[in-house]
Amino acid sequence: MPETTTAHPQTLAALAAEDGGTAGVPIELIGVSKRFGSADPVVDDLTMTVPAGEIVVLLGPSGCGKTTTMRMINRLIEPTSGRILIGGLDARAQQPDQLRRHIGYVIQQAGLFPHMTVAGNIAQVPLMLGWDRRRIARRVDELLELVGLDPAEYRDRYPRRLSGGQQQRVGVARALAADPPVLLMDEPFGALDPITRENLQEELLRLQGELSKTIVFVTHDVDEALRLGDRIAILGAGSRIVQFGTPEEILAEPADPSVEQFVGGGSSMKLLKLTRVRDVALDDAVRARPGDDVADLRRRLHEAARDWAVVLDEEERPLRWVGREDLAGGSGPVGVLPSAAGSRIDTVISGGSTLQEAVEALLNADREVVPVVGRHGRYVGAVTLATVRQAIQEVRQRRQPARHVRADGAGTAVPAASGGVPDTAALAGAAEAGAADEADAR
Amino acid sequence: MTLPEYIASRFDMLAFQAVQHASMVAQCLLVAAAVGVGLGILVHRDERATALATGATSVLFTIPSLAMLGLLIAPLGLGVAPSVTAIVLYALLPVLRNTIVGLNGVDPALVEAARGIGMSRSRVLLRVQLPLAWPVILTGLRVAAQLAMGIGAIAAFVSGPGLGDQIFSGLARIGAANALNATLVGTLGIVLMALLFDALFVLIGKLTTSRGIRSHA
Predict the structure, then answer these.
(1) Cβ neighbours of residue A351 under 8 Å, at least 6 residues apart?
(2) Per CATH, is B3-208 categorized as 3.40.640.10?
(3) How far apart are CA B214 and CA B205, in angstroms?
(4) pLDDT tens-digit series, residues A55-92
(5) Which residue of B has its CA nearest to A176?
(6) How many structural domains comprise chain A?
(7) If pLDDT is split at 50, 70 and 90, which confidence band does A4 have?
(8) Is residue A14 part of a domain?
(9) What is the ipTM, given to two decimal places?
């Protein structure tokens, strides 16, 4: 390579080669429109930025132009007007085929070539880039490992001997072959059964944790969008952005009734799915040891105004619950109470559980409280229905001012001196104060 | 003279005519394949061009072969030239039609996937579309081979090479000595060669079709 010291890469290929291609680069769409013939534009003056290393989901009803928008990024469709910058480089200034080799592309049902083996499919882009055989073979195995398929078993299989889920794994491997900074995924899991779909979504999040690509993901499935998106762009007709924000923002503060309707009436339920137990304020039960004196524990419960205590073993692992009624009239150590077997704890949740899982555990438990355990099963706190309710309300209130701040950030074209900013800030502050008052009132 | 005696008595000539016949058919097929597949590639993406090309070859197809050969005498004279021209023209239709059907039968999503990962148009054609359309194109070639065998026999009408000569001279002298033998040898020889060609195409199909898309893998 003679031109290694040239000042600035001119193509995505050069950019990808420069830093090994690994990390994502931002994608900017600036006033992009697409018109087919003289009909109404499919995409009408769309401006949005996909931050580097994030998954941005384009969510909208079919026919809203989300797939068209995506295809303009890798120039399968040429925009009628506007600019698209990938990693700061104008997509139009590059040869389309060259450009696409450095933008991973995954479509519904994988689109694997049936006459090529799994390895052959994955090798296509490296072949076009002129890699030598050994390097390609190594890369193929590496990618199969990455997507969770045993290379020895799957390398030489033909696509038709793979399940739908396995095909899509290979599809993802093919897209990642040349380690592109950007990945475009067009309803990749749309044709899969719900269980396989969830597995692959989970897998994609794991992969993204390792690779930090910039991913544009098209779907019409709200749950999928909420699950995968770092940010979600809800698109209306003509790819007009109805709302662009994190899943929490969209659930807590839908931009308009149409969004609210679209993301579904069960927004609270969806927030439950999105919020992790470790992110909420936990309740703490009175802690007891099997050796503690009953009378003493009774006193402590009374002082804390609680009805129950959690009994922990030497490793701090929760064993069982004891209530006031269990303690009434008893004496001696807690461990030898006759009713000890009654409230044994067999359901615990961890910090990584979602609030939805916590609620499920609560509904199945015979007490209105479920212990939360940390490393090595150590007790760290407890969740009750009140904890969950409190957490959801907090998410809602937290998001309200946050959204205003973000909206200001997005509109930097307006000078700060316009007076709009202080007003909004004041409003946001008032809302926050109001919310705080409300919380106090409860 | 019995049939085996007839064959034994002029084996050299019969063998020569059979080889001539086979070689004529094979060469005509090569030309028809090149022209038919090439034309198919050119027109398959355009509906009107496709209609025009298949329409034109269909019209050619409706002309009785004897009439076609006769008509070709005027511009091309007798012998190899009109024979080869007629065979190629007839063989063209199945090749062209199957090429178009085969290429259009390739899942558009695959073509899009190929474009999407950065294949150029010609690479998509060579790496994806043609390999996937190949079994259908090959079937077209098989049909064309059978056709060419038959038309090749009639080519004797314009003094073309091949086993057709046995059939025509036999039929012209029917009732005379060896007339039936000649007709039978010509006919059976052509049937036998047609079967051999067909077997050859099955073999080619086996060897050149990816295991991933073969119907009985």
Answers:
(1) A276, A277, A278, A372, A374, A380
(2) no
(3) 9
(4) 999 998 888 889 999 999 999 999 999 999 999 889 99
(5) B117
(6) 2
(7) very low
(8) no
(9) 0.85
